[in-house]
Write a structure and sequence with these properties.
Layout: H1 15-20, H2 32-39, H3 43-47, H4 72-80, H5 91-107, H6 114-126, H7 133-142, H8 149-160, H9 167-183, H10 190-203, H11 206-218, H12 225-237, H13 244-248, H14 262-271, H15 282-291, H16 294-306, H17 313-320, H18 327-334, H19 343-350, H20 365-374, H21 385-399, H22 404-416, H23 422-434, H24 438-447, H25 454-466, H26 470-483, H27 491-503, H28 507-519, H29 526-541, H30 545-557, H31 565-577, H32 581-595, H33 601-611, H34 614-628, H35 630-643, H36 647-654, H37 663-675, H38 679-688, H39 697-710, H40 714-726, H41 733-745, H42 769-781, H43 788-800, H44 804-817, H45 825-837, H46 841-853, H47 860-872, H48 876-885, H49 899-910, H50 914-926, H51 940-948, H52 952-969, H53 973-985, H54 988-997, H55 1001-1004, H56 1013-1027, H57 1030-1042, H58 1049-1061, H59 1075-1088
Helix pairs in contact: 4-6, 5-6, 6-8, 8-9, 8-10, 10-11, 10-12, 15-16, 18-19, 20-56, 22-23, 23-24, 23-25, 25-26, 25-27, 27-28, 27-29, 28-30, 29-30, 29-31, 30-31, 31-32, 32-33, 32-34, 33-35, 34-35, 35-36, 37-38, 37-39, 38-39, 39-40, 39-41, 43-44, 43-45, 45-46, 45-47, 46-47, 47-48, 47-49, 48-49, ...
Length: 1094
């Protein structure tokens, strides 16, 4: 390498041209490097087309793809692109381009860190560029950049890649780098040693290989079997098979580390007379199992057959049969290969129960309790709270029955007997993590490291993150990657790593974790975006501007979360935290330009007003006016003045001529006042908007009354009522009900009649349903024809009161007068429900058929009631008919996927065809048509009906089936459903029997991957309400307030009714609607998956 270090520019190329120059003759802003790849033109030729004469700070024609100068990440991308990613260029040209880019990036002010130097080293290696590693290290020292393990590893690779001209000296230099690493405080890792060992393997120097392996054994490092296999493969490929046996003797034959070329290697081992064991093939079978690759599975079995390695029982049960749809297809496809394999034998293998873990880990107990309680609907909760408490206590005892000392003793025993210890080791690690005993857990991991599995590493990583031990967490992560680089953690573990790495300044590592999440396609949940916000907000509260900016940039660029207003707010908050309002305002402007969001603008405006910084305030107003319009700016200013108590200034703003009401903006501020208990600000809002054009006065007074209710201030509510009368406001029903509730709660007289629910009748609002019906008959006599909608509403009202015959008569009248008259969706559905209730099932099916033929859509409840009624009659044929009728609509109207399945089972049982019921449902689970870990695969309905109707024969048969599925197939959903129904029905002994038979760990498999204390409390409130336990309910409400959990409306409704029934005051506004209304609302919210972005 020349004295100028080979990095001096070779052509007049500016990095800004690479970053910003558009394609010649193109209107887009495509990256020039990508352009060369698309056009096939050599990159240097294209670069010469650019104007390279300007300095990096001159203005020039090309429009930049990104504003400003190249970021650190962009510079890294450029350098990495100069290696094997440019196959159309010769290696020397690629290296020359890398040098040019390096120089121009430096001129543009890019600060290089160790990752940039490592990227350049990688380019050198890919381009087989000759250079001096010593000079390279010197250049890094001059730039005050410390080499890391990757740097040294690549320098060793550079020495090792040289030819035989100076081979011995180069290999000596490579070894010397190990000493340099140690002197620099960087302990050589396994990858470093493997690079060196492979170089010696190429040369066939077995003495040096064994010498290095001995030194590794004496150090704290260790090589895995996969590392040794790499060396074996290099020896074999380089023509030195005589040394393979030397390395094989050092292998531990760990499970799971057979490389992709495993079959060829095992054939070599077989030819050399070495043992080839059956479990060597398991990783290959698992790989095909993940992809359901039947052909791949057969190829592995063929290879085993050729090498005379006979699959054992565990191989078939755990690694082969799971790849096929069923035993029959497996037998058919394997018959030619293994003619001696009988169908009965395969069937027996399929029935072998899989071992399951008996330990329920501490952090998952909450998940289990949530799953259990959440499975009990309103109609199902009959069991007493005390009974449930006893069950929970029993579960906890069983879950933690295996103590750490017991597991340690078991581990020592298994090790002494040379038995597999992976399962018990994992249980011990989990138990120690549950106790938060990080030190002991790490000691156990170090002692039994070769036997550690992925689950153990994941738990340890999470434990270290919880203890803010970033260094150890990353060491564990790297160990796991070395064992199996394809392994992916779940999103929560990755987020924990990002959080702790960011907290302790390891920003590059945190960003690399985010990249790994993207590369390994880690499933992102709705809660992940909230977790990202908390990570960013934590950094913002610490005032770490770079951390917030770079993490946010990476999260958005990788597509891990959308740049919502909430996610963008830490970009501004970090400056607000440092009281740098100018920088905060610039961050808001930047967010608006990039993402169309104005996060925390209100907070900044309030602070600027408080500080009296009119210059920045004017700047903010000008920007908002330009981006969102003058009216938006005026509302922003109005709310800021209100929030800071500047009521005189706020009044001037709201009296601006031509200003109109913006309901959503007014609602936002009113709800904010309620949340922050800003009574004075909300009162002034209502007062000042009295003359605002198109302002909904009742709406604003409703919010003010709502805040009065929150504070239980009936005097202020009463004064508001007087104020509303002075303004001649006609209040809506909800406003009157809210005010009435506040007054009643405080034992005050209500000065008006509380409105009752009106009959929603379109035909005549002023008459009862009966009166409207009589008017219709009179109109019929006079040949007066109504509109179709009038008939539909009257029919619906009549059906709602159970007047089926009158409803049918109105329907006949409508059909006589209006050609092609068809009831609307709601009325038709209600007609079906009423017909089912009257047991007119044939009529109900006819109504459904007419409705569907008219391209109408029934409500799910109508179809459900009809199918359930048919099942009670044992009418299997009609259920199948309805299923056929609904096949194109079931998913769109969100019919339960189990509706037809469960009711067909019930129909079989009602016909006393127990065999038919089992033969219908059991194969659906065993063939995995029904996913046992899916909440939608529940057969609780069937068990509940059998228990309710005391159909013990059917219950016994299905109970046996459920236990068989659990014990023989590892399918636990049915037995869990049965267990919950036993608890619900008070059949504790039956439930306890199931627990004794069924492994508790199976219940954990059904627990969701999240916990929700608020939901658990809501169900607990439900239990208190059913037991009329006022004291416990009040204590729970106080606990929720103390934990700052806001109860949902259904929870509040239950508590309010309970307190009123006991003659006690209600300390909040009782939600005015019915229980059903709030239950349906909660259910719809959970299904909707929608959330306010801010």
């Amino acid at each position: 390498m020349s004295g100028n270090h080979g990095w001096a520019p070779q052509v007049g190329l500016a990095a800004s041209d690479l970053l910003f120059a558009p394609e010649s003759g193109a209107h887009g802003r495509d990256f020039c490097l990508g352009a060369s790849l698309r056009t096939g033109c050599s990159l240097p030729q294209q670069l010469q087309l650019q104007d390279l004469s300007h300095s990096p700070h001159e203005k020039h024609d090309p429009v930049p793809l990104y504003a400003g100068y190249p970021s650190s990440n962009q510079a890294l991308l450029l350098l990495r692109s100069c290696g094997s990613l440019l196959p159309e260029l010769l290696p020397p040209e690629r290296t020359e381009l890398a040098h040019t880019i390096w120089t121009r990036l430096k001129d543009l002010g890019v600060v290089f860190d160790v990752s940039h130097y490592n990227a350049l080293l990688k380019v050198y290696l890919q381009n087989e560029h000759t250079f001096s590693p010593t000079e390279f290290l010197t250049k890094m020292e001059d730039a005050n950049v410390q080499p890391n393990r990757v740097t040294y590893q690549r320098l060793i690779a550079a020495y090792c890649s040289k030819g035989d001209i100076d081979g011995a000296r180069d290999m000596e230099n490579a070894e010397n780098i190990l000493s340099v690493m140690r002197d620099a405080g960087v302990e050589p890792g396994p990858d470093t040693y493997v690079s060196l060992l492979n170089a010696y393997a190429e040369k066939g120097d077995i003495n040096k290989i064994e010498e290095i392996l001995e030194s590794i054994e004496k150090s704290e490092s260790s090589l895995l079997d996969r590392d040794l296999m790499d060396i074996i493969f290099t020896l074999a490929k380089a023509g030195h098979p005589q040394y393979v046996q030397n390395i094989l003797e050092k292998m531990r034959y760990d499970r799971g580390y057979i490389p992709g070329l495993a079959i060829d290697l095992m054939k070599i081992m077989k030819e050399e007379g070495l043992p080839v064991r059956v479990h060597y093939f398991w990783p290959l079978l698992v790989m095909h199992q993940k992809d359901k690759n039947v052909e791949g599975t057969i190829e592995v079995l063929k290879a085993m057959h050729e090498m005379q390695v006979k699959p054992d029982v565990e191989t078939y049960a755990s690694y082969v049969l799971a790849n096929f749809d069923d035993v029959s297809s497996a037998h058919h496809l394997l018959q030619d290969l293994l003619p001696e394999l009988k169908f009965e034998t395969l069937s027996a293998y399929a029935m072998i129960p899989l071992r399951v873990n008996v330990v329920l880990y501490y952090e998952a107990v909450g998940y289990f309790l949530y799953s259990l309680i959440d499975s009990l609907s309103d109609s199902e909760v009959q069991a007493k709270e005390e009974r449930l408490r006893q069950y929970f206590h029993q579960l906890k005892k069983m879950f933690f029955g295996l103590q750490v000392s017991d597991l340690e003793a078991k581990l020592v025993q298994l090790k002494a007997e040379n038995q597999p210890i992976e399962d018990v080791l994992k249980q011990l690690i989990f138990a120690l993590c549950a106790e938060e005993n990080m030190q002991k857990a790490l000691e156990v991991k170090a002692k039994y490291e070769p036997d550690m599995v992925v689950g153990g590493y994941a738990a340890l990583i999470n434990l270290c993150c919880r203890h803010d031990n970033a260094e150890e967490a990353m060491n564990l992560k790297e160990e796991l990657c070395r064992k199996d680089s394809s392994t992916a953690l779940d999103a929560n573990k990755y987020l924990a790593l990002v959080k702790v790495l960011g907290k302790y300044g390891r920003l590059e590592d945190a960003i690399n974790i985010l990249k790994e999440m993207k590369e390994k396609d880690v499933p992102i949940k709705d809660t992940t975006a909230t977790s990202f916000f908390h990570i960013l907000n934590g950094a913002a509260l610490r005032g770490e501007v770079e951390t917030v900016n770079r993490l946010h940039e990476s999260i958005v660029a990788l597509g891990l979360a959308k740049p919502t207003g909430n996610l963008c707010s830490p970009l501004v908050a970090v400056h607000v935290e440092k009281d740098d309002l100018a920088a905060a305002l610039e961050a808001v402007f930047d967010c608006c330009k990039k993402y169309g969001k104005l996060p925390k603008l209100h907070d900044i405006l309030c602070k600027l007003i408080e500080k009296g910084d009119t210059e920045l305030l004017q700047k903010a107003m000008d920007f908002v006016t330009q981006e969102r319009g003058e009216m938006t700016m005026l509302y922003d200013l109005f709310f800021a003045f209100l929030n800071t108590g500047k009521y005189k200034e706020a009044k001037k703003i709201i009296e601006t001529p031509g200003l109109r009401a913006r309901p959503t903006r007014l609602q936002w501020f009113a709800e904010r006042c309620i949340a922050n208990n800003q009574v004075e600000a909300l009162e002034n809002l209502v007062e000042m908007t009295q003359k605002l054009f198109e302002c909904d006065r009742d709406e604003l007074y409703y919010y003010l009354l709502k805040l009065c209710g929150e504070n239980n201030d009936w005097q202020k509510a009463d004064a508001i009522w007087t104020k509303m009368q002075e303004e001649n406001i006609i209040p809506r029903e909800r406003t009157l009900k809210l005010l009435a509730d506040i007054l009643k709660t405080n034992n005050q007289e209500v000065p008006f009649d509380v409105p009752e629910a009106n009959i929603n009748f379109y035909l005549v609002h002023l008459f009862t349903t009966s009166e409207a019906y009589n008017i219709l008959l009179e109109a019929q006599k006079k040949d007066i024809i109504l509109q179709a909608l009038g008939y539909s509403h009257l029919i619906k009202a009549l059906l709602g009161e159970g007047c089926l015959e009158k409803a049918i008569k109105v329907k006949n009248i409508a059909e006589t007068h209006i050609k092609g008259f068809v009831l609307n969706d709601a009325a038709s559905s209600l007609l079906i429900i009423t017909q089912v209730r009257r047991d007119y099932l044939k009529d109900a099916m006819s109504t459904l058929k007419t409705l569907l033929e008219s391209d109408k859509v029934p409500i799910p409840l109508a179809v459900t009631r009809l199918v359930q009624a048919l099942a009670q009659k044992g009418d299997l044929e009609s259920i199948c008919t309805v299923e056929k009728m609904m096949e194109n609509l079931s998913s769109s109207i969100k019919l339960s996927p189990m509706l037809f399945i469960n009711n067909k089972v019930l129909a079989h049982i009602m016909n006393n065809n127990l065999d038919g019921a089992v033969e219908y449902i059991e194969p659906m689970f065993t063939s995995r048509t029904l996913s046992s870990d899916s909440p939608s695969a529940s057969i609780s309905f069937v068990f509940r009906k059998l228990i309710d109707h005391k159909l013990e024969a059917g219950l016994e048969r299905l109970s046996a089936m459920a236990e068989r599925l659990a014990n023989q197939f590892g399918i636990y959903r049915p037995v869990t459903d049965l267990f919950l129904q036993y608890i619900n029905a008070g059949r504790v002994d039956d439930a306890r029997f199931l627990l004794e038979v069924q492994n508790i760990k199976t219940l954990l498999d059904l627990v969701p991957d999240f916990t929700d204390t608020k939901t658990i409390y809501s169900y607990l409130m439900k239990c208190y309400a059913l037991d009329e336990d006022v004291a416990s309910a009040k204590a729970l409400y106080d606990k929720m307030k103390a934990e700052k959990l806001h109860p949902d409306e259904l929870c509040l409704k239950r508590l309010a009714v309970l307190l009123k029934k006991a003659g006690e005051p209600v300390p909040f506004i009782e939600p005015p609607e019915s229980f059903k209304f709030y239950a349906d609302k909660l259910r719809n919210e959970r299904q909707g998956d929608s959330s306010d972005e801010d």
